[in-house]
Design goal:
Elements (H helix, E strand, L loop, with lengths): L2 H14 L12 H10 L5 H14 L3 H7 L1 H8 L5 H19 L7 H6 L5 H12 L8 H10 L7 H11 L8 H11 L28
The structure holds a DNA duplex.
Amino acid sequence: MKKDDVFEFFRRLAEENPSPETELEFGNHYQLLVAVVLSAQATDVGVNKATRKLFAEVKSPQDMLELGEEGLKEHIKSIGLFNSKASNVIALSEMLLAEHGGKVPEDRDALVELPGVGRKTANVVMNCAFGAETFAVDTHIFRVSNRTGLAKGKTPLAVEKKLEKVVPQPFRLGAHHWLILHGRYVCKARKPECWRCQVAELCSYKSKNLSED
DNA sequence: CTCCCGATAT
DNA sequence: ATATCAGGAG
């Protein structure tokens, strides 16, 4: 995608949604970290449904260890991959207490050390909690970047590196949210709604769905 | 690469 | 019935 088109791409998304935020619900950094770990291969709606009750009683790593792994499983059993997620969240909470004073670290190297936290989750926490200009390439951003021609790459990391290069200011802080929301509601995996897409004319997607069913 | 793994939309 | 959902670990 040409440089001017990239600017126009984000200008249009920003015009519609001036201050995009995550749709995951949380009250502090620790809850944000847990919510993002739970959101792997699951919908935000499904995660929020479970964390609403969980976070009413669990607000810190101490609270989580008091609840225990089996107690946590009861809360998150409606989410996919709940066995490994419960195990990771307990281990992650222990590590926060043992090595970080119970607080969520700000740097990627420390975040990725935590069980269940990979590069994408680390980038989300850095952006949402600490205002870092990171690009968390999840399934939506990977699809939208490749499909539109904004940043093509064979792996999430390759797409992230390209986004680092092509996304201009003043859009770098919000870019990952604009892309994810666009992917969730317009540029969807199954049935992309190109007829109401704000950036369709800037897009390289060949088989556009330009008619409304 | 495979496994994990329930809810929802199509 | 099956694809998809804010992926990560072995």
